[in-house]
Each structure stands twice: as structure tokens, then as C-alpha cells.
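Q: Entry one of two.
A:
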Amino acid sequence: MNTTHQSQVSSIYEDQADCNGITEIPTERDGSDSTFVIVDSAEMELFPLMSPAATDDAAVLYLEKGEVTLVLDMKTYKLSKGMLLYKVPKVTVQLLSFSEDCHFKVFCFAPPFAISGSMPIAHLETITVIASNNPVLILDTLTAATVTVLFWLLLKKANWEENAQSHDETIQHIFSLLMLEIVSSYKRNIAE
């Protein structure tokens, strides 16, 4: 991992008493329980200090604007524009604070969602192993633009009503493209 990446990601142990948090409002299609949830911070309700939570899903948080401070597995990370955080399953996470101009998107998914979408298991395992030690990625300009578009597509497709099978397949293909971008970014960061 390059030293620029390490210096731009702030990982510190600190007291969390006076911070703010966010509650996500999950969207469900047709009232059915889905294997994924996508959330846009512009549609979230803000409130003081969110309790830490460990979930069985994995999640990708992409910060488009502003700053976010969160605790992931007892380490505090301060993220800024263009950074991506990959949360592996069963890890405790707590959102501590965020800037007023903050805008981010989160895609949470159960591992079976990735596998059923033809996501190569090797890619998912690679991301999980790397993200267990290095959950934050600083994206280059082209990758950041690609990730922004893929999140936009995921959000739009999740809210469109279509034939259930083709709808889910489309979302899984977009998700697979997102995961391939993440794998590629991790590989570039490791090579540098």
C-alpha cells in the first residue's frame, strides 16, 4: 500500500462521546425483503450519535462530497471526497460525524446476492481479504467517475418498477461492474 494512501486515511483510536450519527432508511421494492439495500445520504434522517452495529451484510460506502468520520472494527476513519470504504460482513460500524456538505451512497448486500449475480467468487473473496485489513480506497479521477455513475445506476434501477427477474439481473450486473472497479483499485494500490 503506498504511503500517500496511508497518510490520507486517518485511522485513530479516540473517544466517541460528542459525535453525530445517521440512521439509514432502507428502501424495499414491493414490500419484499431484498438481498441488497442502497441508500443515498440525501434521503437519510440525521440524529445525534448512532449506536454501533454489527451486520451480516457487506457494504460499500462511496463519499461523493464532504467528510465522514466512522468507526469500523474499533478503528476510526476520516473519509473525504473520492474515498470508498468496503465493510466486510460481521464487522461493527458506527457513524460518528459528517460535514454539512457531506453526500455519500451506501450499497449493502448479503454475500448470496453477489454470488447469484455471477460475481466471480474469487473477486468477492479477494475484496473481503484485502478490505479486512485496508477497508478504505482512495479512487483516481476516472475510477471515481465510474463509481459515481454505477452508484447512480444502482439507485435508479432499485427504484424503477420492472419485471422482477430482469430487474434483479440488471442490478446484479451493475453491482458486478462496481465490484470489478473495486478489485482493480485495490490491485493498483497494492502495486504502488
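Q: Entry two of two.
A:
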Amino acid sequence: FNGKYFSDYTREQKIAEFQRLRQGLMYVDQYEAKFTELSQYAPRLIEDLVDRARRFKDGLRPELKDLLVPFNLKDYNDLYERAQLIERNLNEQAAASGLRFGSNREGNRFGKKPMTGGRHPIPPNRK
């Protein structure tokens, strides 16, 4: 299919795009759709579900990936489903606290602002 409709240059561009693909600000579902679309151009990079799962996990946002590591999931479908569940849970927790998981563009964890010191002096404890 690819050889018939895409030039070598276009195919190489799609392979490179697949290799650079990261979740970034996408939801897991959006990332998975893009991952699936681009993976068609690079079948040798994901020869089985274990390779596919590893590459998918490597592209997830660090806070999601960190929560998935303890499960040691090797199957792509299991990993994708678990990533969806974790993301949904993080979004629910963030909504409860008035934030949106992953909405922050500055890279701060869970949308929180960094602490800044020295603004308000802390009074000493009196005994």
C-alpha cells in the first residue's frame, strides 16, 4: 500500500514523525489514534505487541508513564486501556480540585504553579 501511494521521501518523513511522536497535550485516545496512524509507516519498529507497547509507553507523558511502570504491562492493548483509566482518574482528581490534568503548557506537574519563596515571610513559632 505505502509503496504504491507514497514516495520514499514521504514514507521516511512519516517514519521520522512516528519516532518523534510524544503524547504532549493530547489525551491518551488522541495519542493512540496518531500512534496507530503513523505506525503503519514503520511496521519494522513495532513487529509485535510487546514492541508496540514499549514504544507507546515511551511516548506517554512522564506522569502517566510513571504510574504505569509498576504494572510492567507488555501487551499493547492492556497498556492502552490502563493508560486511559489512569488518565481518567487523574482528570477526575484534578476536576475535584479545580484543575485539568495535562492542560498546563509550562510543563508543571498536574497543572500546579511552582512554589515561590520569599514572598510572604513565615512568622517564627513561639513557644
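A: Comment on entry two: The helical segments are 2-5, 8-20, 28-39, 49-58, 62-68, 76-96. Confidence is low (pLDDT under 50) at residues 105-110.
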